[in-house]
Write a structure and sequence with these properties.
eight-stranded mixed β-sheet; six-stranded mixed β-sheet; binds fe (ii) ion; alpha/beta
Length: 317
């Protein structure tokens, strides 16, 4: 197995690429965003396509040259109720990325449970910067990703469902506010849910204040989320009085359950983060079976979105 320690920094000048003595180079400015993996051995064979689709995403990432330095997983790794067996099923695919020297960071979605996930992915505990929460600052090269954990684990244990909407606990809010005030370079926030779904935009004093502090930071560029299973480019605007308080909002595809199917590749520059969609398919609520007609709008959607890019510019030129 190739480890990150085995890489020698390129002497090309910018030190953006790391070269493995025995493998392809990694680009420190390249990051893959994965979301809504939703694999499970409990799915009936006739309806089981999710793992194959996730595998195709992993194959595509491993074929990149240079390789991305890291991958961030935006939650909903389990199918529906955070089962240990679901995590055991996806782990070998994630480990193919790790074996190629791609560093992995995870956060949780509403279909996950933290305890079984941590049992199957014990190394992910390094990203629990807030007690019991997958909150971390991921270096994307020229900018950072403040990764938040918006899972509101109302089910409490594997095999139970959680509330669909998200939440951010007080400890995480305090951590976020500290990180935002310490930030000295551009950053995006990332979570399974949107700011509104994570209740940051609700009429709750401390949560509103945290979102306000984000928007007041000269370094905040926008928000990346999973959950919707669709490539969605929008805006996370603030009051109409401050035109500069307008930020990009990006929704990620699913690696295989339904919706836009694929992954995204983020490339950081000094003045922006560019996120490009790699779309392999579209289906809803499942792929067409033999004998079923594939709706034309599925393929038109793929054509429209293929290669699309979302740019997160820094606030100031
Ligand atoms: Fe999902």
């Amino acid at each position: 197995m190739t480890t990150r320690r085995g890489f020698l920094l390129s002497t090309a000048g910018l030190a953006t690429a790391a070269v493995a003595a025995d493998g392809p180079a990694h680009d420190a400015n390249l990051t893959v965003f994965l979301s809504d993996v939703h694999v499970s051995p409990s799915i009936a064979p006739d309806d089981s396509y999710q793992l194959d689709s996730f595998r195709r995403c992993v194959d595509g990432i491993l074929a990149m040259r240079p390789l991305p330095a890291r991958a961030v997983v935006f939650g909903d790794i389990a199918l529906g109720k955070g089962m240990t067996a679901d995590y055991e099923m996806s782990r070998p695919e994630f480990m193919r990325l790790a074996a190629a020297g791609i560093k992995l960071h995870y956060t949780m979605g509403n279909h996950d449970h933290r305890e079984p996930f941590l049992r199957v992915f014990p190394e992910s505990a390094a990203d629990l910067r807030v007690k019991g929460r997958f909150a971390s600052v991921v270096n994307l090269g020229h900018c950072d990703l403040m990764l938040l954990d918006t899972l509101d684990e109302t089910g409490g244990r594997e095999g139970t469902g959680n509330i669909v909407s998200g939440a951010i606990d007080e400890a995480q809010l305090n951590w976020l506010e500290d990180e935002v005030s310490r930030a000295r370079r551009p950053f995006v926030c990332g979570a399974h849910h949107s700011p509104r779904e994570a209740s940051l935009a609700m009429d709750d004093g401390q949560k509103r204040m945290a979102l306000q502090k984000l928007k007041e930071s000269e370094f905040y560029m926008g928000w990346v989320q999973g959950h919707g299973h669709c490539w969605f480019k929008g805006f996370n605007a603030s009051s109409s009085t401050n035109l500069l308080a307008t930020f990009r909002l990006l929704g990620l595809p699913s690696t295989g359950l339904w919706g836009d199917i694929g992954y995204a590749v983020a490339r950081s520059f000094e003045d922006r983060l560019e996120v490009a969609l790699h779309i392999d398919d579209f289906y809803y609520p499942r792929p067409a079976r033999d004998g079923e007609i594939r709706p034309r709008c599925w393929d038109e959607n793929i054509k429209e979105k293929k290669g699309d890019v979302c740019v997160f510019p820094t606030r100031m030129a």
